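DEPOSITED CHAIN:
***
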Amino acid sequence: MKFATGMRWATALVLTSSLLAFAGDKKDKGKPAPPPKIDSGSFGVFVKGQRVATETFSVEQVENASMIKSELKGTAAGDSTTQKSEMEIGPRGDLLSYQWSQSSGGSLTVFPDNEFLKERITTSPGSKPAEQAFLLPSSTSILDNNFFVHRQVLAWKFLTGACQLAGPDLKCRQEPADFGTLVPQDRISMPVRLEVVGKEKVTIRGAQRELLHLNLSGESFAWSLWVDDQDHFKLIRVAIPADDTEVVRD
C-alpha cells in the first residue's frame, strides 16, 4: 500500500524525556514521571473524506532504548494489505534497528554498519536478500512510507531542540531545522525541514482544540502537523493538501 506523492506519504525517544516531562507536569503536577509506554493509539487516514487506512502504533521505553511499533491496515473496499514496522532507537536518538514487512510478501531491515546505514531487502519468502548501503550516520531519521508515528518521533526530536521552558511556559524558536532522513521502502535518502508555525485553534471530530502547528517540508512535498503541547506533544492531525489527505488520531 502506498498512498501519496512527495515522500509517498512523506517525510527519539529517550532524547525527548525533558520535553515529555514538561508536557506531563502541566497536567499532572507532583505526580511521578510517565510510565514506560510513552504513547499508543491509532491514526485514521482519510482521502477526500473517506477512510482508507488505519495505523495502530505504540511507543515504549525499554532498557537503554525506545521501541516504536506500527501496523497499517487498508480499510477501503478490496484492500486487505497490512504493513508492519518496528524501530529501535538508542538514548541519543540514534537508530539501532528498523524492520518492515507486508502481508503480500516482502520485508526489509535497516541497521548501522560503521559509517553507513545498510538496508537488506527480501522481495519474497525464500528469495536471496539484496543489500544497499547509504553513507548516512545512525542519527538519520527513518520516515518510511505510510507510518505517521515516524513523523511524531521526528517532531519530538525537533521540539526537543527548538523549545525550552521560560518560567511556566514553553517557548519555541521560529527558525526551521533540517534533518537527514531515510525512506527504506523507496530506498532513498532526503533532507526535510521542520518549523514551528504557532498555536492554533483546530476542529477535530467536531470539537475545537488549541494545538501547536508545525510545517514539515521537502523538495517535493509540504505537510502540516498539529501536536498537543498539553499532552506530551502527541501528534493529533496531519494535513496533506496536495493529495486531499487528512490523518487524525482516533
